[in-house]
Amino acid sequence: MKRFSFAAALLAATVLSGAASAKTLVYCSEGSPEGFDPALYTAGTTFDASSRPVYNRLVEFTPGTTQIEPGLAESWEVSDDGLEYTFKLRPGVKFQSTDFFTPSRDMNADDVLYSFERQLKADNPWNQYVAGAAWEYFNGMGMPDLIKSIEKVDDMTVKFTLNKPEAPFLANLGMDFASIMSKEYADKLEADGKMDQLNQMPLGTGPFEFVNYQQDAVIRYRANEDYWKGKEAIDDLVFAITTDAAVRLQKLQAGECHIFPYPNAADVESMKSNADLTVMEQEGLNVAYLAYNTTQAPFDKTEVRKALNMAINKQAIVDAVFQGAATPAKNPIPPTMWSYNDAIQDDPYDPEAAKKMLEEAGVTDLKMKVWAMPVARPYMLNARRAAELIQSDLAAVGVEAEIVSYEWAEYLSRSKEKDRDGAVMLGWTGDNGDPDNFLHTLLGCDAVGGNNRAQWCNEEFDGLVNKAKTTTDKDERTKLYEQAQEVFKREAPWATIDHSLVVMPMRKEVQGYVMSPLGQHSFSGVDLAE
């Protein structure tokens, strides 16, 4: 506690003093990162602290959109058959020089090969540098089956050859797992027997250099003087880890931080009336859900899952947790995403019918666990409160639910276990604007044991989403995804809960911040008014 208190006091002094020699932006983040190698994880909290300040990718998403633009690749060509992607790398891009490593060369094709081959090849020495590394995103998206080879054409040219066409492949390369690492840095860590430091002391080509991390308290970065887009206006970036939304608001009002995510819904109107604050809002490309473990009885029965869905009053959750700033969800993709099937009828809230259905399925005196996230997320601001409402709803149909939770990293890890009990509350914000990023990434057979927390592998559903991945015609892809949503609704591996409005409060002096429809929190291009 003393260490945390000292860090908080130092942080406040830094912000309030307004040191003339440097601009420091403080972001009150909602949780701690699991690590600093973005390819190992899937949580937005971790990506905010790792890939977005420190790294770049071959292609990037234009701020505020789901459109891609050149990143570390200045151009690319795609073969007529859609099987070959050739990237021309941007010359003169420098890796960061930090207190722990000074690079001797610019970014080149070797770095791109290293960044992907460590995930692709089981015999790569970096494939298991973190014990049990699952490369959850890479594997869950079927990349090992998709990528036939990655070749270095020359120092500044890389060619990906695919086994089949993949419509969202280019957009996928703009995602965090595709961040480009320094092979030279990795080689030095391997030679020194310190490979684990890659996940603790990151080094990339991005706008901010990692300085240090005081666990569960503060992460410090400084502007990359040699950033290929030009040095940022902000000299220092600080993540002040503050898990309680009420405390985050107090810090914002006191000037101890400049911006924070996921405020309590009840506080939004008062923030809007505060002349010192700006409150941005945007429809979220997100969904919150309760994933049943469909491999465990009685959740292996569709009729049991449907009955439990009918017992849950989603509108009550939206009203209590979001003060109405969300809508009940009926599909696994948000209504703002193309291919959303609005013709689907949601399961009605009908406790009596739910109770009868459970009895007909032979389920009586059911006891189960409902998992509640320990942190606020854009799609679920207060998981504990939502779980309490679900617990009450289930009790009304004769189901005894125990609410369980764990520290965030442990929660994410345990919730992937194939023998996990009960139903886990989680959610998703789209990472690339494509329905595949929801339907295949969260519900495909490739993602079982990873992002597919329902452990649900349905051949009909999987066939539809995999066919859609290989189809370039958007109208045809839309039809396939609409059919896949019908299968999802019929089989009910989740209880879909809500799609939320995303709110970002900040102090008036913050300039240039752009909200991302992909839920990213990036501070490149942000400045503070004098």
Note the topology.
Layout: H1 2-17, E1 24-27, H2 44-49, H3 51-54, E2 59-61, E3 68-70, E4 73-78, E5 84-89, H4 109-120, H5 136-140, H6 143-146, E6 147-154, E7 157-162, H7 169-172, H8 183-191, E8 208-214, E9 218-223, E10 236-240, H9 245-254, H10 268-272, E11 277-283, E12 286-292, H11 302-311, H12 314-322, E13 326-328, H13 351-360, E14 367-371, H14 383-395, E15 400-404, H15 408-414, E16 423-429, H16 436-443, H17 459-469, H18 474-491, E17 494-507, E18 510-511, E19 527-528
Parallel strand pairs: 1-10, 14-15, 14-16
Antiparallel strand pairs: 2-3, 4-5, 5-7, 6-7, 8-9, 9-10, 11-17, 12-16, 12-17, 13-17, 18-19
Helix pairs in contact: 11-13, 12-14, 16-17, 17-18
Describe the protein.
The protein is built from 18 helices and 19 strands. The protein is α+β, with helices and mostly antiparallel strands and 530 residues long. Strands 11, 12, 13, 14, 15, 16 and 17 form a 7-stranded mixed beta sheet that branches. Strand 14, helix 14 and strand 15 form a beta-alpha-beta unit. The longest helix has 18 residues. The N terminus is likely disordered.
| Low-pLDDT sequence parts | 1-20
Q: How many beta strands in the DSSP annotation?
A: 19
How does the helix and strand content classify structurally? Answer: alpha+beta
Shape: globular
Helix content: 25-40%
Give a short account of the largest sheet.
Answer: 7 strands, mixed
Which key terms come to mind for this protein?
30% helix, disordered N terminus, four-stranded mixed beta sheet
Brief digest:
The chain has helices at residues 2-17, 44-49, 51-54, 109-120, 136-140, 143-146, 169-172, 183-191, 245-254, 268-272, 302-311, 314-322, 351-360, 383-395, 408-414, 436-443, 459-469, 474-491; strands at 24-27, 59-61, 68-70, 73-78, 84-89, 147-154, 157-162, 208-214, 218-223, 236-240, 277-283, 286-292, 326-328, 367-371, 400-404, 423-429, 494-507, 510-511, 527-528.
